[in-house]
Amino acid sequence: MTVIWAGLTLDRPRIMGVVNVTPDSFSDGGRLDPDAAIALGLAMRDDGADIVDVGGESTRPGASPTSPEDEQARVVPVIGALAKAGVLVSVDTRNAATMAMALDAGAAIVNDVSALTHDPAAAALAAARGCPVILMHMRGSSATMYDLARYDDVVAEVAAELADRIGAAERAGIARAAIAIDPGFGFAKLPRHSLALLRGLSALTAQDFPVVAGVSRKGFIGATSGEPDPARRFPGSIAAGLFALGQGASVLRVHDVRQTVQAVRVWRALAG
Ligand code: HH2
After folding, report:
1. In this structure, is residue 167 part of a structural domain?
2. What is the CATH number of the domain that holds 262?
């Protein structure tokens, strides 16, 4: 039976394009000009993105925290314009108030890197709105996450910690069919942990929930390939992304939409 999540049939890989409305994203430097962010989101849609993920706070290690008000001022106009143009938008936020304003502006999906733990009001908000949610695994905050990157068996521990978050989400009233999970590559993981998670991703995709994989431009791609500049990591990112699809991931979160769409088309033709 074909799984449907966020209105998308998951009988083929889905592409989520990343639009960072920030001054400091690790992956692309971000941008604060709303018109540039809107233009990027529309171009991603035209290039084949199924979802455009709009975020206003960088989660890179050591990033200075963004107030919810600043975050809202950054993302809401961009989300409003993209939704009006018919784009399926997710909001990348840890804050319930930002989720509410983003959903009011037309976002359809909540993508929370804290898996609804950062803001005590987030789970109830997502439940009340009945929107699809992405629960991503991490430990601690951007400031503390690398101290918490200690695992005996990273695949089993991430699966167990995500299962806890799924349980909490369901207890808060979020429908099972609304939930997607994400192992959180690079979040409270050293490069060797991200590689092990990717290798063992089928343990997560074998469960009941669609898996979102955000490998694009991540530090483990740089560490593995020797490419220090995140903007030059597409080749490594697509190698990792196609591997994730081979392990059963449903959605790839990427910065380079056009190139990824081409690669996925060829991969699908070969993989059957
Ligand atoms: N990675 C980032 C941000 N949000 N959301 C999900 N579900 N999965 C991820 O892997 C993920 C995410 C970090 O990447 P980016 O948005 O490019 O950088 P920054 O947080 O510095 O803006």
Report:
1. yes
2. 3.20.20.20
